[in-house]
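Human:
I keep going back and forth on a fold encoding question. Comparing notes only helps if you start from a blank page. Show me how you would write down a chain together with its backbone fold. Write it directly below this note and I will take it from there.

Assistant:
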Amino acid sequence: MDEEYDVIVLGTGLKECILSGLLSVDGLKVLHMDRNDYYGGESTSLNLIQLWTRFRGSDKPPANLGSSRDYNVDMIPKFMMANGTLVRVLIHTDVTKYLSFKAVDGSFVYNKGKVHKVPATDMEALKSPLMGIFEKRRARKFFIYVQDYIESDPKTHESHGKYGLDDNTVDFIGHALALHRDDHYLDEPALDTVKRMKLYAESLARFQGGSPYIYPLYGLGELPQAFARLSAVYGGTYMLNKPECKVEFDEEGKVVGVTSEGETARCKKVVCDPSYLPNKARKVGKVARAIAIMSHPIPNTNDSHSVQVILPQKQLGRKSDMYLFCCSYTHNVAPKGKYIAFVSSEAETDHPEIELKAGIDLLGPVDELFFDTYDRYEPVNEPSLDNCFISMSYDATTHFESTVTDVLNMYAMITGKAVDLSVDLSAASAAEE
């Protein structure tokens, strides 16, 4: 391994694989290593036996759950906005040819103890039981304003903030449409929220479906492998099952290579998740998650086979939102008739089974329930000094917007330029179901 690489990427989590693909397409010489013998790192998908081994310590799941290989259970479950940044990255890199997507059936919000469809257009606002009659009209006007808003056209900016929406409406718009994770947005300029709402509406219109989200057939484990394939096509080298992967530095503290099994590969830059350079990252929080296997859709979601429900923090008396994600055999992640649901949140206690109860209570009867927690880290190093580019841990959200922002920021730091994502989204329709 005495070759020199432009970049060595450590870990095959989704963020690392996207970066490895983008950098390989740019013509950089990339070596990608992982201490595991599988793709995906923290964001891998498990079959039933792997799930049982991880959470129950045995490899004998009950026979009534069906075949192990029919399961693809995401460890970091997230949907993609149909018009969002990740889809633009997939199209920009042509990774869509390795994947098939299917629209997600429903997008819901928890309000006053009940689950309601998220109204995303002016017509839906008029029908929504979330609001009284006068509030519906105000919300409808606001939705029309957002749909017509064009940042570069001042004529569309009039009547700014004169809608007098009540706190209840502001709550579900901010959390279920604009996808803010807490209430900090209330103290910030409205432009970001308007843009986020536009993205939601555009994504919804793209499929004429019940939600703005799409999700790959066979689960998210397909994504890192698709980007790995892309990297390989452009000359990237992959090595799995490489123990230790120790990053080496010169006397100035700049990265010079990575050593594994007594051999050192030289490089100019290292990209990795926080687990490879723990002394250059700090803990910033913890995610609590419940994983449920069920034999029915989530109640009160119109029998949706795939669905996201957002439980805004204010509705639960919490500091951050809770997320409910469900997919099923229709996305090829479980045997026929089986559903996989996740309840996740930024952990505020050390008791996930108590903390996630509000979300678990919405699931109805479950066949099996697992609990998982993991720490979230973010980098504290200065990449311009050590040439180490470290991703942030995955958050509790069940959509990809924050994940992709991190990837694109890292790409800009590594290359000094932005990814050109001004792609024609209609060109992607071939990859969509």
Observations:
- Confidence is low (pLDDT under 50) at residues 427-433.
